[in-house]
Structures are given as structure tokens and as C-alpha cells.
UniProtKB/TrEMBL annotation:
Cross-referenced InterPro entries: AP_endonuc_1, Endo/exonu/phosph_ase_sf, Endo/exonuclease/phosphatase, ExoIII-like
Gene that specifies this protein: xth
Protein origin, superkingdom: Bacteria
The protein's name: Exodeoxyribonuclease III
Keyword terms of this UniProt record: Hydrolase, Magnesium, Metal-binding
Cofactor requirement: Mg(2+)
Length: 265
């Protein structure tokens, strides 16, 4: 099973690039973030045409997550388990944002997340980020208690360590790298979850995001915020991990690159 995560930064704008990636790399499961589409406007038929089943949790103009499963892989799913964590957003409406989608796929629990950015910090958006991470941790503990093989994939908006960023100084004031953000991420690992990319790249230096500004892509000024966390059952099956870096350099690409892990049967 090949599982992947890809923050596509707008499904309408990136649909050709997204379908291109799916056809070329054929992940068994693909978790998408920032689809930026209301549920009724999600182009599910476009994925059916290339052999993928999909579920999604959308929101107008912002956020939004989806889980795609290769219909030719011979496995069931995605069978939705839960959408949302029941935590209100930081704006005046108090409505929950579309950031969490959980499903069963071929005997594996797949959790697709788009964790809040948290900027500017300090402030209510950073407080929301930390509260969301605590709620995520609680839900991950519930999944752990179910004793099902599980993977939590997505844009965590956390740079875990100094060797996960091209320049520590340049990001020192960003919410992605604050001690509180890192500590919350570290607690997930302390609970027993395995960072798949870190496992195969202990020295760091692997980027998953390059900003559109200041020639970040051309200068390789990136950092790692897209993660795959595995339960012990799946960590034992981890065979390979990678970042489809070349897709970031294509025309009208997302500012993120897809991240994937291969799990033995």
C-alpha cells in the first residue's frame, strides 16, 4: 500500500497537476488538503475517470480535505469514520473549519488533516492552532485504543526540528516553528506515533514546501511541514518514503510537494 499526502492549494486551480501526479505515481491512498471547495463543487467525477474513489469535507474558499482511493487496488474504502474534531474556528462565526477527515481503507485507518497555520503569533490564531493540536492528540489516542493500524497524514504546519528548514533564523518568529508548536508535535511522537520521513531521513534536509515568494523554489529555500505519522503496526511495515519534489517545479504547481510512504502488505 502506498499512502500519500498532498496540499494542493486549490483543487480547481491545480486539477490538471493533481490528476497528472495521480496517474504518474498511482498512490493507493491520497490525502489532499486545501481543496478550497464547497462540497457540492468538488470534482469527484474527475477522479472517477482516472480510477479513484473519493470522499471530501469542503469549505468555501478556504481549507478543505479529501481522501482518494485507487479503485483498481482491490481494497475497500474510503469508508468515512469521522469528519471534524468538534472545535470551533477562531473567527467570530465560531463555525468549525474543514480540516479533519477520517476513513477506513483496506483495513487501515486513514486520517487526513490540515492543521491550522497559527500566524500571526501570539494571538487567537496561534491559540487556535495549539487547541486544535490538543484535540487532534486526544482523537489519535482514541484511535490508538481501537488497536487498528493507523496513519495520520497531512499538512501539520509544524517544522519539527531545526534541520527541517533551510534557515532557522528566517523562520524564527513564525508560528510553524514556535516552541509550543514543536512541543505539541513532539507529544504526538511521544505517544508512540512514528514520523515516517524522519525515520528514513534522520539528518533532515528534506523539504515539502517552498513559498511562491522571493524565488524560494529556485533557491531551494524550503522546509518540511507535510508529515506522515504511523501507528506501531504500520511503522513495522514501513518500506520506503519520499517526496515527489519534481512536481513542485511544474507549471502552475502547488507550493507543496506530495509526500508518500510505502507499506508492506
Amino acid at each position: 500500500m502506498k499512502i500519500a499526502t498532498f496540499n494542493i492549494n486549490g483543487i480547481k486551480a491545480r486539477l490538471p497537476r493533481l490528476k497528472e501526479w495521480l496517474v504518474e505515481t498511482r498512490p493507493t491512498v491520497a490525502c489532499l488538503q486545501e481543496i478550497k471547495s464547497m462540497d457540492e463543487n468538488f470534482p469527484g467525477h474527475e477522479f472517477e475517470e482516472i480510477g479513484y474513489r473519493a470522499i471530501w469535507h469542503g469549505q468555501k474558499s478556504f481549507n478543505g480535505v479529501a481522501i482518494l482511493v485507487d479503485a483498481n487496488a482491490g481494497i475497500e474504502g474510503p469508508i468515512e469514520v469521522q469528519r471534524g474534531l468538534g472545535i470551533p474556528g477562531p473567527d467570530d462565526s465560531g463555525e468549525e473549519q474543514a480540516r479533519y477527515l477520517e476513513a477506513d481503507v483496506g483495513g487501515v485507518r486513514i486520517v487526513c488533516i490540515y492543521l491550522p497555520n497559527g500566524n500571526p503569533q501570539p494571538g487567537p490564531k496561534f491559540d487556535y492552532k495549539l487547541a486544535w493540536m490538543e484535540r487532534l492528540r486526544a482523537r489519535m489516542a482514541q484511535i490508538w485504543a481501537e488497536e487498528v493500524p493507523a496513519a495520520v497524514l497531512g499538512d501539520f504546519n509544524v517544522i519539527p526540528e531545526d534541520n527541517d528548514v533551510w534557515s532557522v533564523k528566517s523562520m524564527a518568529d513564525d508560528a510553524l516553528m514556535q516552541p509550543e508548536s514543536r512541543a505539541a508535535y513532539s507529544r504526538l511522537l511521544g505517544d508512540g506515533w512514528t514520523d515516517a520521513v524522519r525515520t528514513h531521513n534522520p539528518r533532515g534536509g528534506v523539504w515539502t514546501y517552498w513559498d511562491y515568494q522571493a524565488g524560494a523554489w529556485q533557491r531551494d529555500h524550503g522546509f518540511r511541514i507535510d508529515h506522515i505519522l504511523l501507528s506501531p503496526e504500520l511503522a513495522d511495515r514501513l518500506e520506503a518514503v519520499g517526496v515527489d519534489r519534481a512536481h513542485r517545479g511544474r507549471e502552475k504547481a502547488s507550493d507543496h510537494a506530495p509526500v508518500w510512504a510505502v507499506l508492506r502488505d
